Amino acid sequence: MASVSLGEISLLEKKLRVPKIDTLQKIASALEVSTSFLLSEEDSELSVPAALARQSLKLFLRDNPVIDAETEYLWRVCALDSAPQTTKAWKDLLSNIGVR
What is the pTM of this model? Predict the structure, then answer.
């Protein structure tokens, strides 16, 4: 997944080891979330599906130029229960709706 061993992930989940910064960054990248999210510093008040939608949209918007109207539309969609939860799904949604 993130080139982190299952044993390492198990130790992290059990809180038997504090992750190194690069390990945390690898895991965040693989899950398409921020390191702040993994540390419960961001979006912790949201349900997991809502947080994943928000996190993946933030990454999508960071890495893909979109016009203001598209950004506004995507944030409205993000509030829905059926919002995409991966950057690929956000890209697919944008290309399928033909806002561009």
Answer: 0.78
